[in-house]
Amino acid sequence: MSTGTAPLAHEQRTGHEKGLSKGSVGLLGSVVIGVSTIAPAYTLSGALGPTAAAVGTHLPAILLVGFVPMLLVAVGYRQLNRAMPDSGTTFTWVSKAFGPWVGWMGSWGLLAATILVLSNLAGIAVDFFYLAIAQITGNDAIAELTRNVPVNVATCLAFVAVAAWISYRGMEATKVVQYVLVVFQLLVLLWFAAAAFGHVAGGTAFDGLAVRAEWFNPFGVETFSAFAAGVSLSVFIYWGWDVVLTLNEESKDSATGPGRSAIATILVIVALYMAVSLAVLSYSGVGAAELGLGNEDIQENVFAALAGPVMGPFAILMSLAVLSSSAASLQSTMISPARTMLAMGHYGALPAKYARITSRFQSPGYATIAAAVIASVFYAVMRVVSENVLWDTITTLGMMVCFYYGVTALACVWYFRRDAFRTAKAFLTKFLAPLLGGILLLVFFVQTSYDSMDPEYGSGSSIGGVGLVFVLGVGMLLLGIVVMLVQYRRNPSFFRERFETTELPVLD
């Protein structure tokens, strides 16, 4: 690893070049990495059941509603990237719009979210790793190894180490791995959907419902609570598309390519979600018996219950697909925190060592290792303390994502406030879309924070009569403030000077 000094203070604030490998990622490669980070096979397996239980046959409508704020925010991200293609994304853009203090906390939200999800992805990968081996060998006892804490933690650390090693070797190594894993999981999901529809058409499905137009009507959801649950779900199932923006300095067209990739990634995901959700809903229905989506016994892992009846002897492929989905996402998700910390080190918001670039692979080597170590320690501690604590981190993840997505979207509105009203297109893309998306997500952040104070929220765990999800979420933000103040004492110049980046002209 190169240990050269970080950029000088003046260079930190006037240039965004950080030594990353330029032009190493094209549109297709970027979309593949974006889809990988979202992890559709892993996400759908755990999300379809609870959502259908809340909204019934209006599952497709809720998935479409959840897609809207993500698209609105992505429009704002695209405009910011066109003006400032910088791997720091939220950190750089929010610092430019609102100042270094808000920018630092916005980036902390991103870092906290990615570290939380890295630990959970590693845990899911471990579960399906041993499940797949058990299915292949026919030895059910192997699947129980995941409940052995020492074995579980050791396997998890091995997964994180491999993911970090691939990320450390740069984007070329990352792309090769991602193409294989993403294509495999997409093919299996489409195979599953086609097989489910085949059972419906042949009269052999469990419930066998015909697709109806009313399934797509969000106003048919009976209560606002159920509707809000759908919006909450969207944060989890769509999150991850913004990783393609952190690749802007490594993209072939840094100003416009990543923005197109972000929009394309979201569109691909919503189309895939529609196909699979309609197939599952048609096959299983929403009843509480056996294979119905309302059955609580199958909701944690819908595909584990349905793969056999739907795919027959090829059910093992679904376990491998979910395993590859979580493993691929574990590796691709590491891209975002590494490049965010790289940018923070480059501009002086973190110690200079975070700005180190590997001379051989042109990747953020130190930041990648740091992200892997932090995620590993967090997972090991949480897994030893309680499995419920680890599950509650998923809900905490939603809070962090709403926070930094919302702040970044509003940064777009403020940054372009002087020219957003010059044309109708500028008004829609630089003001209205990011404003609506940002407000929606920040309102949800506040609402979730309030609701999570209830001890019954999430897993039902609490500390001192306060819900564990609230303690984790607020604790994360308070920790961010403490770390920020420590860094202020170490390098006050970043927080005192006006934050600058090299800007490119933005064409309407």
TrEMBL record:
<feature type="transmembrane region" description="Helical">
    <location>
        <begin position="25"/>
        <end position="45"/>
    </location>
</feature>
<feature type="transmembrane region" description="Helical">
    <location>
        <begin position="394"/>
        <end position="416"/>
    </location>
</feature>
<feature type="transmembrane region" description="Helical">
    <location>
        <begin position="466"/>
        <end position="488"/>
    </location>
</feature>
<feature type="transmembrane region" description="Helical">
    <location>
        <begin position="363"/>
        <end position="382"/>
    </location>
</feature>
<feature type="region of interest" description="Disordered">
    <location>
        <begin position="1"/>
        <end position="21"/>
    </location>
</feature>
<dbReference type="InterPro" id="IPR050367">
    <property type="entry name" value="APC_superfamily"/>
</dbReference>
<feature type="transmembrane region" description="Helical">
    <location>
        <begin position="151"/>
        <end position="168"/>
    </location>
</feature>
<dbReference type="Pfam" id="PF13520">
    <property type="entry name" value="AA_permease_2"/>
</dbReference>
<keyword id="KW-1133">Transmembrane helix</keyword>
<feature type="transmembrane region" description="Helical">
    <location>
        <begin position="262"/>
        <end position="283"/>
    </location>
</feature>
<feature type="transmembrane region" description="Helical">
    <location>
        <begin position="428"/>
        <end position="446"/>
    </location>
</feature>
<dbReference type="InterPro" id="IPR002293">
    <property type="entry name" value="AA/rel_permease1"/>
</dbReference>
<feature type="transmembrane region" description="Helical">
    <location>
        <begin position="57"/>
        <end position="77"/>
    </location>
</feature>
<protein>
    <submittedName>
        <fullName>APC family permease</fullName>
    </submittedName>
</protein>
<feature type="transmembrane region" description="Helical">
    <location>
        <begin position="180"/>
        <end position="201"/>
    </location>
</feature>
<feature type="transmembrane region" description="Helical">
    <location>
        <begin position="108"/>
        <end position="131"/>
    </location>
</feature>
<keyword id="KW-0472">Membrane</keyword>
<keyword id="KW-0812">Transmembrane</keyword>
<feature type="compositionally biased region" description="Basic and acidic residues">
    <location>
        <begin position="10"/>
        <end position="20"/>
    </location>
</feature>
<feature type="transmembrane region" description="Helical">
    <location>
        <begin position="221"/>
        <end position="241"/>
    </location>
</feature>
<keyword id="KW-1003">Cell membrane</keyword>
<feature type="transmembrane region" description="Helical">
    <location>
        <begin position="303"/>
        <end position="323"/>
    </location>
</feature>
